[in-house]
## 1
Amino acid sequence: MNPEKRLRTAGGGGAETPRGEREEAGREVDVSIVMPAHNASCWLDECLQAISEQDFTGSMELSVYDDASTDDSRQKVEGWRTRLEARGVSVVISGHSSAQPKGVGYAKNMAISQSCGKYLCFQDADDIMSPHRVRLQYEASLLNPNALIGCRVQRLPEGSTERYTRWINTITQEQLMTQVFTSHGPTVVMPTWFCSRNWFLKVEPFDEGGKGVPEDLLFFYQSLRQGGGLSRVNQCLLVYRYHEKAATHSVTEETIWKLRVDFLQERVLSQWSGFTIWNAGKQGRKLYRCLSPANQKKVKAFCDVDENKIQKGFYTYEESKEIPKPKIPIVHYKAASSPFIVCVKLDMTGGVLEENLNSLQLKEGTDYYHFN
């Protein structure tokens, strides 16, 4: 499903050019703001106004790829060209007018391939960057050239995703790495990404599978596989808008679940000889059933705080073809042994889960990983 690495010209037809070449020989700027757009007209004035107000003193360009909009998104961007160029921001716009959009991954790849910045600042057309965003993330990226750089966000409307927003803004630098298996998705959230072009080209283009494909999570995991780092500017540099038309809503929970399980097995469970699943309920059992047979055999026990579950004594894997069917013990968490995969949702127990983990003096990323 992944396209081969390539760069294209800015023409609406999307003709390909060899990787590494530019549309114009010698054209290069410090930062390209990469913006896919599809029917974004109602948000573009605020978005583009914020881009025009950046305090970054280096050279910038805005690269927009319009993915079959049926509104006046492309014309709206064109209408801002003079104002943006007056502020020193060059503008590259292209797109296609097919009957159906080709998806966010395709539009991002096209916007990147027609751009020429040494660094890439990803900007969704419905979000608003602070005046300091490009400058601060550029400075951070110079120090971390092989990393995805994020930032804190303000969610709009306020309170629309309270737990998710709190998680984005409060996880530590270490947790950017250790919590990559949680259901929240990339610990450095896509609308805040900033990275060097060289690193993007080393990883791979975005998956172009279209609607329903989590192109950001696929790229995020591939970046980690390549040894990439993660970092966050601890300032709010983006107004991150929540609305029903956001592309993320087209991705199913099961698609994300499978990607997370596969990455967990690849990165963590492959290194462990045995482990305990922290949650004998629905989520813990689901994780067990999704593991490979080899990793299922590594599960020493389920642990829980629910006495009703503990009193059952064991979980029987009825779907197994083995005879007799596997029976996994269910024990109290204080009687369980590390390492753990914790399948209890964060920030949902009034701090009880966190207190229980702390009581065992466990180290996240060594003794346990969060999966929910």
Note: The first strand starts at residue 7 and ends at 8.
## 2
Amino acid sequence: MTTAKTRIRIGSAPDSWGVWFPDDPRQVPWTRFLDEVAGAGYGWIELGPYGYLPTDPARLADETARRNLRVSAGTVFTGLHHGPAVWDTTWEHVADVAELTRATGAGHLVVIPAFWRDDKTGEVLESSTLSAAQWRDLAGQTERLAREVRERYGLRIVVHPHADTHVDSEENVARFLDATDPDLVGLCLDTGHYAYCGGDSVKLIETYGERIGYLHLKQVDPDVLAQVHAEQLPFGPAVARGVMCEPPAGVPALEPVLAAAQALDVDLFAIVEQDMYPCDPDRPLPIATRTRAFLRSCGA
């Protein structure tokens, strides 16, 4: 009989190797990422930015299979609070990622809301708060996206609360969940981003457990986070300063988060994502290896 603890599958992502973009000279080559993520003891990966890993399904399948890796999800960024006007351009991007995600055998599409300020330059792109009409558009268009992705590609979307987006804090995450259909829209709980924005991951799991469809595991350094908030730093410079840190050095403690997730008694992916852009190319592998050993010590 399958126990609850065995129902959480641990993986990692290009993000933990300092990969934020499809192509960037400061990022490790995709072949090195695949070699090292397998060598660190992970069996599951995310696709990362579309175009970083091979987009030809046959080649990607060959490259992952010979390293004993499987894909858990693809990722898309969306600005659905802008309403129907952005649907066509959004779908054009989503369809490419969803097609590749389906071809890998994965079942999830991680959906990240658009940033309200540029994560590199800090330029304010729009208001950090949404109007009532924008909240309605966000909820309605996200449900539309979920329905289309499910019907056309057989994937379930999980929305990822993220720093410097409109779905970030405990209040805004709750508002988003309460406004969307549980049968369509799941949540990707990123423990680091939620702590970054003042949320309690264990409380969220206990309150909205039926909405938790996916986990990203990361921690924040509380001292650096205090500096980030005091200086009102954008997310990109905050990451460069080291706001996301190697577990178990930061918050939230991952043992109670995993215990709360295990208590849900559902199949979940828990993907390690330690934001490190940019980073020395030799830095990720030792951290990834130690993190995998730490998670094993937590029973995951």
Note: The chain has one domain: 5-297.
## 3
Amino acid sequence: MFSSFLTRAMCQNNTSSAPPKNETPQPQQMGMVQSLVAGRTIAAALTAPTPSEGDSCEFGSMHYFALCGLGGVLSCGITHTAVVPLDLVKCRIQVDPAKYKSVFNGFKVTLREDGARGLAKGWAPTFFGYSAQGLCKFGLYEVFKVFYSGLIGEENAFIYRTWLYLGASATAEFFADIALSPMEAAKVKIQTSPGYADTLRVAWPKIYQEEGLNGFYKSLVPLWMRQIPYTMMKFACFERTVELLYRYVVPKPRSECSKSEQLVVTFAAGYIAGVFCAIVSHPADTVVSKLNQEKGSTALEAAKKLGMAGLWKGLMPRIVMIGTLTALQWFIYDAFKVAMRMPRPPPPEMPESLKKRLQAEGKL
């Protein structure tokens, strides 16, 4: 079943069937895919391309999806680890607002009690957890985007492209959070429970001893509640913002922009998407922090204890953190694609078939 899914995801023709006896065999295009860029069919060459031949892999191939996953590991692992100090203060504001009254006060109290090294608490589970999440998030997003577009057809993939982005990103994040949850549980314990554990190798056995496997996955549902809306906004808002920036802001077509100019657009679109991501997912993020701090509590109990005002504590540092984080993630991911000479289709355009149909109906 899984191999069948991958075959459909890559839109590959079945090469096992022989041509009719009286029919001249036609050369096959291996790994043919229809990209989300309307009117473009991308087929792999029969031989592996050399560096001078342009792209290093075929769009929609297993090689392509694997590289996308690796780009996700780099973009998420590096960026989340880089903002651990801000994330630590944000989590502490969420679970103990009486002690950590603001971002600056949170840094001050943490430095006074734990020293500069205290700001790096939780870096190991952050790095490993979000690297695993990035692998699934970006890699599977590309898989499901191609797979769903193949299911609904080229015209519908353009007309309903926002829904396509939302659906592909939601499905990818569902699996990404399963990979993230154990490390997220350890990270929050280290950061918000003084004296519990200072390192991952101490926190993991302790969580398992006290709560069993449930200790690693008890916050999975609120994690889905936080991360799935976040990721849906992250990918759909980014894709549409890039489209709008090239249409209304950038003074020349994308094809005439240099790689550096394209990466600037990527960063800007990523930051805009990040601001919306932070707002949409913040209440669930607060519940996750509170839930992992307190043993035996449920998501509903944590939300009731926090109250409406408490659910929005730490929003401003999270907007700064997530905005910067999302922009850097997209920048690193796109820069990785450039460095690896991966196919980078331009924003989608209306398919010729749809254009002709709308013209015939007088709607264009």
Note: The radius of gyration is 23 Å.
## 4
Amino acid sequence: MTSSVPSPARIRIGSAPDSWGVWFPDDPRQVPWDRFLDEVSEAGYEWIELGPYGYLPTDAARLKDETARRGLTVSAGTVFTGLHHGPDVWDRTWEHVAGIAALTRAMGAEHLVVIPSFWRDDKTGEVLEDRTLTATQWRELTTQTERLGHEVRERYGLRIVVHPHADTHVDTEENVNRFLDATDPELVSLCLDTGHYAYCGGDSVKLIETYAERIGYLHLKQVDPEILADVVANEVPFGPAVARGVMCEPPGGVPALEPVLEAARALHRDLFAIVEQDMYPCPPDKPLPIARRTREFLRACGPARSST
């Protein structure tokens, strides 16, 4: 007789250029891409994201060689979109997405992380547009995101996972719920970033339990509650907040990651959980020791022990 007990879920732990202070394709304050690959492998990770397109080599054959000889595999690519602006931005958006999606697929990954555009600049803090969407903009955001999910799936075989993010329009519990309720689960899943969601006042475990079928990918991150309180009180933009250290090394911040991983494991499906400790800018020798300690901490978390 066949058992009806679901097979244990695998939580695949990885890291990303973000944890090495990389926010842009080219920036003199960032570590060179080959150093990132060397150190992320040395820290004990086997999975990585592509990071900002153009930071890692964009030639698939070269990137496959560079990652394979370090024992690394790509889990996802990342794109930035402003789909609430409607069909007028579709062609420009698709031009941006297509190259990244092609490289992501060529590297054997199955996910494309989609980050909504910022209402204020993440580097300068300049206010770019109203922080609240109109009803029309919400409709455009959801319908155009569904269109993106369909096109990416049909053309590249990838699943989009939308990433709620500070200083974007998909940020708080209210806005994340509204976005999920208005989009098709067959086309749009969620990349739950525990740090960004806590930054915006959300409860990651509650979100996983409430929208279990929509959780398609995880970013593991914590915020320093004391720094966050000051950031919120003084309306500090995200970039300067990161420079203050608002995103901190686990397990020193919130949310606690053990319950998040436990809730994710209870979904009974395989998930990537990619460490992303925002650090921009940061000294070049700072990331590796943090990455090592974080990997060991996650090994000690019960749900992460079965990761591959």
Note: Residues 303-308 have pLDDT under 50 and may be disordered.
